[in-house]
Amino acid sequence: MEGTLILFLISITGLVAMFWMKLHEIQNGKALYPEHVRKYADEKLYKTIDTVAREGSKVGDISIRRTLLQFFSITGIYVAKGFKKVSNSDNKLVNFIKGKKVLERQEKRSDFLNSIEENKRENGGGEIEG
């Protein structure tokens, strides 16, 4: 029963996401992703539909646990690939998070932060005295 509910919720979430993306495309006149990504996803979808149609009769009892495990492992692989691609990109925010670059300060610091830093220097970087 739980597996069916989880599968149903995943399906509904996917449908809502697809309708939202299509509505966004129609309203703004442009896609949220490049055209080559859509073509690639369509090819994968058609291959999957063909495989399910061909192999579906061979599958007797589908284990929800096994199906979810496979789904999450495949999703994990694609998420890892995405993180790798993002981490290899030259994005200022990503580099800041990874600690490769330090963003330059636009404004002066507040008096409060300056007093905290001064207090830390006076106390040797230890506890701040109250």
Rg measurement, Å: 25 Å
Number of helices: 5
Mean pLDDT over the residues: 76
Low-confidence stretches: none
- Assembly type of the chains comes to single chain
- The first-to-last residue Cα distance is 57 Å
Described by the principal axes of the CA atoms, the overall outline is: elongated
Largest sheet: none
Count the E strands.
0
Indicate the proportion of strand residues: under 5%
What is the string of helix and strand elements? HHHHH
Helical fraction: over 70%
Secondary structure class reads: mainly alpha
Structure description:
The protein is mainly α. Helices cover 71% and strands 0% of the residues. It is built from 5 helices and no strands. It has helices spanning 2-28, 35-55, 64-88, 92-98, 111-122.
Secondary-structure map with pairings?
Elements: H1 2-28, H2 35-55, H3 64-88, H4 92-98, H5 111-122
Could you list some keywords that capture this structure?
mainly alpha, 130 residues
How would you summarize what this structure contains?
With 130 residues, the chain is mostly helical. The protein is built from 5 helices and no strands.
